[in-house]
User: Fold this.
Amino acid sequence: MKKEEATLVLKNISNLITLKGPNRARIKREMSETGLINNGIIAVKNDKIIYVGQGTLPKNIKTTAETKIIDCKGKTVTPGLIDSHTHLIHAGSREYELFEKIKGIKYLEILESGGGIYDTVEATKKASFKELYEKAEKSLNIMLSYGVTTIEAKSGYGLDDFETELKQLEVMKELNKNHPVDIVPTFLGAHAVPKKYRNNSDDFVEKLLKEMIPFVSEKRLAKFCDVFCEKGVFTVEQSRKILSEAKKFGLLPKIHADEIESTGGAELAAELGCISGDHLVGASYNGLKMMAEKGVIANLLPTTTFFLQSEKYAKARKMIDLGIPVTLSTDYNPGSSPTENLQLVMSFGAIKLNMTPQEIINSVTINAAASLKLENQVGSIDEGKNADISIFDTPSLEYLIYHFGINHTYMVIKNGKIVYNKNPIL
Ligand code: NIG
Ligand code: FE
Assistant:
C-alpha cells in the first residue's frame, strides 16, 4: 500500500458531517442524510482530502513533525459552506429604504419610483475599482468568518452602463485571485430596466443580446447569466430571450423567479433548464412540478423575505416533497437582504421554512455546490475533494441552527490551509 504524508489532520471530531455520497444535488430523502461520523478524523495532503473516517488514521497515512494537527473534540465539522446567491459587489447602502418600508411603502414601489436598485446603480457607477474592491473584501472576510469558503456573486449595478457591469466583474476576478474565498461570477445585466429604457425595455434587451452577453462570454468574465424576472421588471418573454441567448454563448442560466409575485418564472426556469430558480416565493404549483421534472435547483433566500417584511415564505417543504433539490443562500445585497450571515439563513431555514437540520446542511453544501456546477470539487468531505472545511464550536449541527444570530465558527480551512481562526493563540 502506498504511504502518504498528511499535511493537516483534524482528529477527535465529535460530529463530522461529511455529506459523503454522489457528487450531485441531493433530493427528497437523500436530503435527510448527512454522512455523520462520531469521533471522526480527516487527513489532508496539500489542498486535497486524502482520508475520511472514524478513530485513528490507517497505516498508510503518515504524520510528520510538519503535519498540522487540530483537535476537534466537542466541535462540529462540515464541508466549507457555500453561499450560492449574493450581490457582493456594490457601493453604498440603503438603510433609509428600511424605514420607508416600515411606513408601508413596498420594495417594488421604491424601485418603480426610481429608488432601490437604481440608487445602488448610481453609487456603483461613481465608485472606483479600489472602492468596490475594498468594500467587497470586507464583506468577503465576514462571510469567511461565518464558515463560507465559496460564493456566487452577481453584477447588476451597472445595467446599461456596461463599463460599470464590467467593473463589477473585474473586481470579482481580482478578489478571486487574492482572497481565499472562491467567487463564481454571474452576469446580471438584466437586474432592472435602466431608467433610459423605461418606455422601450425591449431595446435594452436587444443591447444585452447583441453587445453585452457576447462580450462577457468572449472575455470569460462570468460562468452564469441571471435575470430579475418579476412584475414591473423583466417579463417572462424578455427573460426567455436573454437566457436563451446567454446559453448559446456558453453562459449557464439562472433566474430570479417569482420573488414577490408569480409571473411564470418557475415554469420558465424549467423550460430553459436553468441550473437554479432563485426566490420562488410566489411560484405556482405547476411551475414547481415542472422544476422537479427538470431537476432545476430551488435556491431559497429566507432573510430576503424576512427583510421585505413579507408573511409569505417559499414553500420549501412542498419543494422537497416534489423532489426539487433545495439550496439556501443569503442574497447579500444592499436592498432586500443586507446580511453576509449564512448561519442566520440556516436558522431561518428551520424557523421560517420548516426544514430539518439535515436538509439545511445539504442545502448549503453539496446542493449549493451543484448549483454552481462545482459538485465534483467541493460541497462534501470526501477523498479526492478540495480540503474546504469549516469547524464550528457547537456540540451538534442542531445546536448550530438553534442558537441563532451569532457566529459559531471556530476555524475555517480552504484548500488545506487555515484561513480563519477564531482563537489565534492555540
Ligand atoms: O435578489 N431582486 C433583485 N435583486 C436583489 C435585490 C437587489 C437590490 O435591492 O439591490 C434580490 O432581492
Ligand atoms: Fe438576488
